[in-house]
């Protein structure tokens, strides 16, 4: 992959002498951190460029892109290749999503899926590009760590991620995956939604009882931060949580690496920064998310306010989901939120639900929300084990003329609102047929 990056740098240097560059990046944490890394690298390279953050790619948008520019896509476009083939310009894609279409001659893709390399997020790919371009860009490694955490890659670390973590001088500590790990422990536990801990999340009384039973005391009137706990304290806290959650979820899912980064000259939890970036974009303020990554203090201030509003939106959305009627089958649940949940947070809601103790492992969660004349569909698998939700959506969406993006455990698509009933009807058929197939295969074993 590094050889491909070197060749891309050479080609971009030549092409950009005659054409400006237009960068289009996805609006989630991985996309925003990718955009921040890439734009800083281009600025230092003294290249003429513009940047646009988007929720996704549609044919009409791609058609509108100028052909007198070099087009660079970050964290998207690997599944828009037929549309890109029609563009009369050079196109570069830095992405990590599965490639299922033929790569056109005018498109170059830097993607670990293409060459069977270590699976890394788009921000990490962009960082490797930036570092290969100039060692001056090593200061962008922290953004790649945030992108890594934001895209849930932190459990599968290989040589590239090890290198990025070292470059960023990130402190890695094993512990309970509650964030922010840099704030008072009682507050972090009370407001934890991912994971949701029964009897603890949202309950100050439950938190104090948990900490008392764990033998964790206040020091000078306040509790330690999670990352400050000793191994013994961390072990006791984990045991106390496990005892309260027997049968609810696998306790091993609660333990992992805490990534402590320097951000605005302060020690921060990478998960918290990732969540803040994501919140800005999901609340339709991607410019503040980008500004936060670029070190703008005004953006940081705005991001903090938006993050609070975002969490309130999540609470309202989760309350709606708990109270609304759902379409449920043997191993699936369909939530049609219509206008009751913002399309920009429906994926987050599906993810939170898939990690909750409400659904057993392998249950497919599919959530829908209106987006003007479209419907945003997000699919997740509970427990991260089970059928490929991207394939499930593809079986329904492709015959309807749509596109599906994402991964086996987390995928999404856009469909037209007029096809709402047809989509749900066909989706149920596919889910029920797949269930019959799985049952039949088990009986034949």
List its salient traits.
14 strands; 3 domains; Diaminopimelate Epimerase, Chain A, domain 1; alpha/beta; single chain; six-stranded mixed beta sheet; inorganic pyrophosphatase (n-terminal core); 445 residues; disordered C terminus
How much helical structure, as a percent, in the residues?
Answer: 40-55%
Count every helix, treating DSSP H or I runs of 4 or more residues as helices.
Answer: 17
Number of strands: 14
Main sheet, how many strands, which sense, barrel?
Answer: 6 strands, mixed
Distance from first to last alpha carbon: 41 Å
Overall geometry comes to globular
Parts with pLDDT < 50 across at least 5 consecutive residues: 436-445
Structural domains: how many: 3
Oligomer: single chain
**Portion in beta strands:** 15-25%
Q: Look at the structure and give the mean pLDDT.
A: 89
Q: Which strands sit side by side, in order, in the main sheet?
A: 9-10-11-12-14-13
Given the helix and strand composition, which structural class is it?
Answer: alpha/beta
How large, in whole angstroms, is the Cα Rg? 22 Å
Could you write a compact summary of the structure shown?
This protein is α/β, with parallel strands linked by helices and 445 residues long. The chain contains 17 helices and 14 strands. The protein folds into three domains: 2-137, inorganic pyrophosphatase (n-terminal core) (Alpha-Beta Complex); 172-313, no CATH class; 324-444, Diaminopimelate Epimerase, Chain A, domain 1, CATH 3.10.310.
How does this model look, in words?
By secondary structure, the chain is α/β, with parallel strands linked by helices. It has three domains: 2-137, Alpha-Beta Complex (inorganic pyrophosphatase (n-terminal core)); 172-313, no CATH class; 324-444, Roll (Diaminopimelate Epimerase, Chain A, domain 1). It has helices at residues 2-15, 29-44, 59-64, 81-84, 112-115, 122-133, 141-150, 159-168, 185-190, 204-213, 231-244, 270-282, 286-293, 297-323, 346-355, 389-397, 420-444, and strands at residues 21-26, 49-54, 70-74, 91-94, 107-110, 171-176, 255-263, 266-269, 327-328, 332-336, 364-371, 374-381, 404-406, 410-416. Helix 15 (346-355) links the parallel strand 10 and strand 11. The radius of gyration is 22 Å and the shape is globular.
């Amino acid at each position: 992959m590094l050889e491909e990056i070197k060749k891309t740098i050479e080609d971009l240097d030549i092409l950009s002498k005659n054409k400006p560059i237009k960068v289009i990046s996805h609006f989630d944490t991985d996309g925003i951190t990718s955009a921040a890394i890439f734009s800083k690298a281009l600025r230092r390279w003294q290249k003429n460029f513009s940047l646009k953050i988007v929720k996704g790619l549609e044919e009409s948008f791609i058609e509108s892109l100028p052909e007198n520019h070099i087009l660079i896509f970050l964290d998207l476009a690997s599944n828009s290749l037929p549309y890109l083939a029609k563009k009369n310009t050079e196109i570069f894609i830095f992405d990590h999503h599965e490639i299922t279409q033929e790569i056109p001659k005018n498109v170059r893709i830097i993607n670990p899926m293409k060459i069977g390399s270590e699976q890394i997020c788009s921000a990490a790919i962009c960082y490797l590009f930036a570092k290969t371009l100039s060692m001056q860009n090593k200061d962008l490694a922290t953004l790649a760590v945030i992108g890594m955490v934001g895209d849930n890659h932190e459990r599968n670390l290989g040589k590239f991620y090890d290198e990025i973590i070292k470059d960023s001088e990130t402190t890695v500590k094993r512990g309970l995956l509650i964030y922010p790990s840099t704030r008072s422990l009682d507050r972090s536990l009370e407001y934890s939604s991912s994971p949701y801990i029964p009897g603890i999340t949202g309950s100050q009384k439950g938190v104090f009882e948990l900490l008392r039973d764990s033998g964790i005391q206040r020091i000078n009137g306040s509790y330690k931060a999670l990352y400050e706990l000793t191994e013994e304290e961390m072990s006791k806290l984990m045991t106390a949580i496990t005892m309260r959650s027997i049968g609810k979820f696998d306790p091993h899912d609660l333990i992992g690496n805490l990534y402590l980064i320097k951000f605005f000259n302060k020690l921060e939890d990478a998960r918290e920064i990732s969540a803040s970036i994501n919140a800005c974009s999901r609340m339709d303020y991607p410019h503040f998310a980008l500004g936060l990554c670029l070190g703008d203090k005004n953006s940081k201030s705005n991001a903090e306010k938006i993050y609070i509003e975002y969490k309130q939106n999540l609470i309202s959305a989760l309350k709606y989901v708990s109270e609304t009627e759902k379409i449920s089958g043997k191993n699936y649940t369909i939530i049609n939120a219509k206008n009751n949940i913002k399309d920009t947070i429906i994926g987050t809601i599906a993810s939170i639900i898939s990690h909750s103790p409400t659904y057993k492992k392998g249950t497919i969660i599919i959530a829908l929300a209106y987006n003007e004349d479209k419907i945003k569909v997000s699919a997740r698998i509970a427990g991260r084990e089970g059928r490929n939700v991207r394939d499930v959506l593809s079986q329904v969406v492709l015959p309807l003329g749509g596109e599906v993006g994402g991964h086996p455990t987390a995928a999404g698509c856009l469909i037209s609102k007029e096809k709402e009933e047809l989509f749900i009807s066909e989706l149920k058929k596919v889910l029920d047929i797949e269930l019959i197939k799985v049952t039949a295969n088990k009986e034949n074993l």
